[in-house]
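Translate sequence into structure tokens.
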Amino acid sequence: MLRTRSRADRWWSQGHGTLLDDVAGNWWVMYHAYENGYRTLGRQTLLMSRELYAVPVLIGCILFTLILAYAPEYRHEGSIFCIGLIFAIRAAAIHWSLQVPEWAMMGSRRQ
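Result follows.
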């Protein structure tokens, strides 16, 4: 999920996106948004790469799996905690413009 942080942001009404990969194996997120000051042109298609998009979900799911395996009596509290953790990591990634390091990107090795 993406969001507009201020009126000065270039892209407004950002939302969810679709993960896709190109022929080189690079991962991208395709999403729509209105350009600030050009709303009458309609939503434009944008591509975003190297953004921490799926990583927070992966971390939350792994943690929840561990909670279910080793402390199943805390599954309800664990689910709430993991969902909160996912949103917190995603919010931090948006706020500080965090990206996945190049070494961790699939298909990013230079030949």
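Note: The CA atoms of residues 39 and 99 lie 28 Å apart.
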